[in-house]
Design a protein that fits this description.
The complex is a heterodimer. By secondary structure, chain A is mainly alpha-helical. Chain A is built from 14 helices and four strands. In chain A, the strands form two sheets. Chain A has a two-stranded antiparallel sheet. The longest helix of chain A has about 30 residues. Chain B has 14 helices and no strands. The two termini of chain B are about 45 Å apart. Classes of the chains: A mainly alpha, B mainly alpha.
Chain lengths: ~350, ~325
Amino acid sequence: MLSDGQGRLAALLISPTMVVLLLTVGIPILLSVREAFFRENEGIDPQTGILQGGEQFVGLNNFTAIFAGLNDVTGNYGTMDRFINAFINTSLFTIVCIAIETVLGVLMALIMSKAFRGRGFVRAGILVPWAIPTIVSALMWRLIFDEAGIMNRLLGQQVLWLADNPYSFWAVVLADVWKTAPFIGLLVLAGLQTIPADVYEAAKVDGATAWRTFWRITLPMVKPTLVVAVLFRTLDTLRMFDLPYGMIGPAKYSVETLSMFAYEEANQTRYGPAAAYSIVLFLYIVLIAYLFVRLLGADVVGDEESKALKEQRRRKKERARLAGTRPGKQRTSITSGGMP
Amino acid sequence: MSTTAERVGAEAPTGRHTTAEEIAQLNKPRQSTGQRLGRIASYVGMALIVIYCVLPFYWMIVSSLRTPDEGRSTELLPSPASLENFVGVFTGNNNFMVSLGNSLIVSSVTTLLTLLFGIIASYALARLRFRFKGIILAVIIATSMFPGITLIIPLLKMFTGTYEWFPVNWMNTYQALVLPSLSFAMPLCVWNLTAFFRQLPVELEQAAMVDGCTPGQAFRRIILPLAAPGVFTTAIITFIAVWNEFIIALTFGRDQDMQTATVSISKFTGQYGYDTPYGTIMAAGVVVTVPLLIAVLIFQRRIVAGLTAGGVK
């Protein structure tokens, strides 16, 4: 640290960014919450016969309408409300894609970490899927999965991948895994490279098998990196839009995600329901992020200093509490808290 | 232990001279079979990774090089090869040149704005000590996790002039494309730069200040030049993220002359027939992607460092 008491300078330097974020993220989120409780008037007022404009407060109606069975569609999992269908699709995409991507990504990282030569070459290859715009890769996979396309030719089958059926779901999963597994591999590789070599040597001296070394050393030591990478990817997949939109198309219920459904509704100027759905998605994402941080200990911020300050404050508070209530227990508590 | 070296030695008495190559072989440290197998497996694995990553892209390139009416052909090489699709991209009513220009404007302006704000903010976050730093970092990272759609819905209502307190129609304007893009470009930029500034030794500024620089001067004269590679990497990563963005551009740039390249490609009707013009779409995809790929391949080391900076500690 340069010196203390830099709060004012910091505020000066950070406030432009915070203002931009307030304008482009904070206010839209608040407006979205507001919209979720309103609905656009449509059609003619039954009492006066006048064409209505504007909007009205509808309370939780936009949310409860989900369960009213007014908007049923048939996707891969039977007939249900379009929102619930989109919710299931979003969740399944996330679970399936992330599971495959994580395994494949770790595998790729392990292979790359064992590389003797040509690591740069592989790294260049791995950046190819990352650099291609998602919508372009969606159209590319659309061609590959075409009825008369190369995928069917390779499989020797006539699968209608793009025809809004369970195959469409798997086609999108494959395209997503292709694009992002290498990315997870890249992040995990960076994590692997921070593991000191002597740990592995010690394991070797102790006669550990490769399998055991992986589970007991590699995985625990790469876990912080892996958890953060998987968290980011999970949140990314929860808001998936481009890939199903470009590959299968809008309003295709076998692949429609929450983002796609909310987008369609907003496009029909049904801002109220659209905002309600997007708020549910928002809360879903917040919940998942919270679970990651709580259960898996994802350290997203990773700022050592603020962590240390927090720890210091916590300890001070703890000490004050103990000193105030039971002075006799103070000594033991500090020794155990001081050496975590 | 049957190594190449031993076999070469066994062959030597049959009247053949040991060549320079064989001597080099003999001089190499001996490898166990397991090591050699491991090496082979690693090469095979790396080859598989590269094939996995590049093969679908190869298909895109091959498909773009066919004649326009062969869009769906499954021949592994284009026969006959033709550049007609690339001509088709820029002629006809696709307006693709304009779209490329729009993408360039939106991506450059967004990148410049985020850098302008992001550099000073990340410097403060990396170097200064102040209250609420952890919270501010958490807020910045959290904003990048918000679903785009939640932001787009009220903005759509706003930019169509539906709100009485915002009676302006901003649809199909550059500001409607740039401002929402800041919502994801800004956290990305600040995040990358903060990680980068943290890596620079703090002694540099201390030395400069001992020599009589103000903190501002120390930043301008010492840190900024040293941070140039990091700023550059962040600029590339941000630029690519905005260039590849789809849903914001799809929502706010609807007129044909305000579409960005990604939106334009998704709406290609092509000039040949009413069938999906796959050849032209793939050619356009190649046009949009190749400049990025060249940049990525040239700066791959830095980009990887930038991409992993936030995630690895």
